[in-house]
Amino acid sequence: GPKVLQIPSHQIIDMGQMVTLNCDPVSNHLYFYWYKQILGQQMEFLVNFYNGKVMEKSKLFKDQFSVERPDGSYFTLKIQPTALEDSAVYFCASSLGTGNTLYFGEGSRLIVV
Amino acid sequence: AQKVTQTQTSISVVEKTTVTMDCVYETRDSSYFLFWYKQTASGEIVFLIRQDSYKKENATVGHYSLNFQKPKSSIGLIITATQIEDSAVYFCAMSPPLSGSFNKLTFGAGTRLAVCP
After folding, report:
1. pLDDT value for B100
2. What is the mean pLDDT of the segment spanning A45-63?
3. Closest to A31 (Cβ–Cβ): which among B35, B46, B102?
4. Residue B70 near residue B14 (C-beta atoms within 8 A)
5. Closest CA relative to residue A75, chosen from A88, A83, A66
């Protein structure tokens, strides 16, 4: 099926530092998403993004979080500063439109120490 | 708000048999979309099958099929002729109608399937 690529696959970072997670969505997709999965639990919605704007965000999307997709390049999730509770696997997803299936990347495992 | 519930924490079956995984959901929307994904041991999330709520016919893709019972708000996943490689965690998910949230998926807690030889 369609592939979403995520870089890095995993990263260890000191608390308080900044981290950027990168996502290369499916080429013709227009909607982009980030989900957070804490070990052993279900994925939870963070944010969705369309036409250069955040359309909707959850309570998990703290003020320290930001997303952007400059000039059609990577769709990024930036956390600044990081906190211990940000340790999780972050999944990027994309879809062609609303009502279309979301396709997920393989996740970026973030460990904040 | 939408809610998805998977009550089966784990299931173990012998390969080549059929397994059914349960999922019930809550929503105030009259139309919505339902999905099943699986998460492999490596962590990869793979889309399996979907059901649009306005369609009465149960979706089928390969050896995956759905048992959609709208009056019961239920969307069961049926896997026939299971294989060892079907061992994974299966997540049920739903999203609002086109006029609602932009494809915001709500996931269930997942069911771990172990297929044994």
Report:
1. 56
2. 94
3. B102
4. no
5. A66
Indicate the pLDDT class of residue B102, thresholds 50, 70 and 90: low
Interface residue B9 vs chain A (CB under 8 A) = no
What rounded mean pLDDT belongs to chain B?
Answer: 93
The residue type found at B64 is Y
Cβ–Cβ below 8 Å for A56 and B102 = yes
CA distances to A2, A26, B54 from B71, in Å: 33, 36, 12
Kindly report the nearest CA distance between residue A111 and chain B, in angstroms: 16
Interface residue A103 vs chain B (CB under 8 A):
yes
Contacts of B107 in chain A (CB under 8 A): 42-44
Alpha carbon of B87: minimum distance to chain A alpha carbons (Å): 16
Q: What angle do CA A95, B70, A46 make, to 5 degrees?
A: 35
Tokens describing residue A38: 């804490």
Q: Please give the Cα distance from A73 to A31 (Å, whole number).
A: 14
Q: Is the N-terminal amide bond of B97 cis, ω within 30° of 0? A: no
A44/chain B closest Cα distance in angstroms: 7
Give the number of other CB atoms < 10 A from CB of residue A23: 24
